[in-house]
Amino acid sequence: MDGTAQLTARPVRAFAYDPSSAPGSPHARAVAVLDANWTGTSTVPSRGLYPHQWSWDSAFIAIGLRHVAPLRAQTELETLLAAQWGDGRVPHIVFHPSVPLDAYFPSPDFWRSTTAGRAAGAPRTVQTSGIVQPPVHALAAWLVHRADPALSRARGFLARVYPRLAAWHRYLLHRRDLGGGGLVSVVHPWEQGMDNSPCWDAPLSRVAPAPARSFRRADLAHGAPEDRPTDLDYGRYVRLAADYRDGEYRDGRGAFAVEDPSFNALLAVSEHALARIARELGATGTARHARAERLTAALVERLWDPAYGQFLCRDVLTGEAVPERGVTGLVPLLLPGLPREVARALVGTLTGPHFGLGTRTRLVPSHDLLGEAFDPHRYWRGPAWFNTGWLLERGLRLHGERARADALRTAVLELAAASDFAEYVDPYTGEACGATGFGWTAALTLDLLHDASGEDAALRG
């Protein structure tokens, strides 16, 4: 079977939960979404709103694909990593050449990767963006390998992706420690993945927006304006990206540099996964586990705020914490090396009045329910997302909160199916927002259906 085969051509493996593959079941519907979004070499997040390959989307999609089509899961990651730059960065978008330029903005002619990115080693044969997204890829690669080790070994999958993953982590740790404290900084809100979070409002306020006439927003053709970023915020995103491009994608302290909790937590988790990959390939993973532990310690030292009961973002340019409660500050619950009192406080914040999990909300809102900036529908300013639900379900389970993890798992599965696998939902009502038929929502549904125990998440060091 080659990488273009349909998911339905491969039998489903039975795990602790045996999902029904009958037509109309959540399992079958999730498989259909991934089939519809498959391009032959990768999976788009959605056909309309996001018609290219996105970096952390592909990692989450591979995690789900591994259960029903391990070869496709491997291909998903290989396609993304083939677009890696010479300096090690994995771009946040890999553009499909058959998609019209006006289908998505910023388009390839905005990023100009093959020219503006030449000094940083951008590939010559494929066009990409020049910024990055959270490093979930080593975790995804390890889970994909575990799904079918015989296939992985026969194809030399880990041996081929390991050097690229190592270079990717090296880029982040060496080029992006802009604060000098051992944590990675993001230089654009799109890099962190939670694009429109109120956590970025204060750092973004320094950025003069690009003139509205200088760009055309393609996203508004596919989503309600009240669900999307404002024109002012979008103008600032465009200005930051254009300045980074015009500087030939050189890393340094520009107008925006933020140490983000979830980005760094995911890097630490992926360092643990990369250690396991190294051991599978006959090397030692000791140094990588130690690096993950150092990242965890730096997170606690620099970004933990006991008064808030969660991690806060840190504005590198001012040296100050950003006093906003975003879901990003809860994601470090994934880390196996957290001090017990920190993990306990995170669970308290997650289930308390600011996020209301299990009382006011069934899924985790992306922002503080009590915050002035909270909006239950607007992109990352309040709606619940399925990837953060998946991450926090794993974190709860890792730290012994089995009942809460089970309840969150049930909510993710039920609301994903009920919302037609929406991009995100109203955290109170479950009403679908953004795109439907969304790739990572379908993929993570499959993962939760197959892996009810959470043991396969490989989050322990």
From TrEMBL:
<dbReference type="GO" id="GO:0009311">
    <property type="term" value="P:oligosaccharide metabolic process"/>
</dbReference>
<dbReference type="GO" id="GO:0004573">
    <property type="term" value="F:Glc3Man9GlcNAc2 oligosaccharide glucosidase activity"/>
</dbReference>
<dbReference type="GO" id="GO:0006487">
    <property type="term" value="P:protein N-linked glycosylation"/>
</dbReference>
<keyword id="KW-0326">Glycosidase</keyword>
<protein>
    <recommendedName>
        <fullName>Mannosylglycerate hydrolase MGH1-like glycoside hydrolase domain-containing protein</fullName>
    </recommendedName>
</protein>
<feature type="domain" description="Mannosylglycerate hydrolase MGH1-like glycoside hydrolase">
    <location>
        <begin position="50"/>
        <end position="441"/>
    </location>
</feature>
<keyword id="KW-0378">Hydrolase</keyword>
<dbReference type="InterPro" id="IPR054491">
    <property type="entry name" value="MGH1-like_GH"/>
</dbReference>
<dbReference type="InterPro" id="IPR012341">
    <property type="entry name" value="6hp_glycosidase-like_sf"/>
</dbReference>
<dbReference type="InterPro" id="IPR008928">
    <property type="entry name" value="6-hairpin_glycosidase_sf"/>
</dbReference>
<dbReference type="InterPro" id="IPR004888">
    <property type="entry name" value="Glycoside_hydrolase_63"/>
</dbReference>
<comment type="similarity">
    <text>Belongs to the glycosyl hydrolase 63 family.</text>
</comment>
<dbReference type="Pfam" id="PF22422">
    <property type="entry name" value="MGH1-like_GH"/>
</dbReference>
